[in-house]
Amino acid sequence: MPISILTSEPQFKYQPHNLPSRRNHLQNPLFHMSQVKRPPRPQRRGLFFSSTSSQWQQQQRSLSGLDTHGYSSLTPTSLSSVPLDAAIHCGDLSQYGSLSDYKNTLELLRSIAAPIKLVIPGNHDLSLNSSGLPRSDTRDAPDLTERQSLHTQAQRFWTGTEAREPGIRFLSLGFNEVELENKGLLKIYATPYTPFPPGVDDSEWAFGYKSNEDLYNPLGTGIWYSIPSGPPETKISEERKGEVDILISHGPPRYRLDRTEEGENVGCKNLWRAVRRCKPKVHCFGHVHAGYGAELVRWTEENGDLPKDDDMDDGIEEVRNINGDIGDGVRRLVVSEEGSGRKETLFVNAALLGQEMLEKMPWLVEMELSGRFREEEGRGKS
């Protein structure tokens, strides 16, 4: 049961002068951004996964994920002829949250030969984030109705009939279970959230939070200086931390494939603590295009409470960079039995394209999933 994921990120630094201002956004609720200098063309990212059921053998297929900023084609890469179990979009369905970009992304997803397409938004998808609406005390408040209308249209677009017909499922924040056609059960934790860069707020950055806010770890399980925040569904409790096969986030955790071209680690420390606690088989993300690559982390046996803070090597026995076996235009990886036993986690940052051309190969990762039969098909089977 192969699985694949693709993402794409803009080729520019996330600094305030590169982002549209609050006033430009509010004056133009459809985010055409005609008065804003656009950044260079975004970089697409890609990751392919492959999985096999642990209870029975199934024909291998693939699952792909995307982060495409409103582009309607993966040219020169095409997945139209690749049989997939599912497709995963890791966020940034648009460049600035316009409906036209969403329609382009839907066209791209339709072109992928997968019966199931799993989608999360990212920091560019402003119209999907209700907290990014203008505040009532601003002088631009008359635009509030138009902005609310766009938010409603965006939500309906990704959850309505037009999106459901090609198999798109807009993932809920937190835990999700998806039954694949071969009856394998994919257990996912999904989050579109990324920390705000300095000087940026929710008028310019969707699904953002302050770096000291902890959306993922319940009180008493996070790092000492972070403040528990966010709705209950974002928390990975002690009771549920073993339920994650794949963690899908828009941005990376701290220390894992999150280094910018300037050498700065920009991933989220609170997300890293959550990953360290739940030890998923695979954690896939994009957002930092210079971090393209894959690495396998082997965890140490830890008993009792975790330390008050996390250093880069805390809880880690070994880290190995993984290049994969090259063939058929992909880098092929396998999640071992150790990964299935929560002793290892494969981290993949799948940044494929440069500014104008495909520069890097996508990843194909084979892994085992827990399986189950549908009730009516499972009677009498052992």
TrEMBL record:
Signal peptide: none annotated. It holds the Pfam family Metallophos. InterPro entries: Calcineurin-like_PHP, Metallo-depent_PP-like, UPF0046_metallophosphoest. Residues 83-290 form the Calcineurin-like phosphoesterase domain. One of its GO terms (molecular function) is hydrolase activity. It comes from the Eukaryota. This is Calcineurin-like phosphoesterase domain-containing protein. It comes from Hyaloscypha hepaticicola.
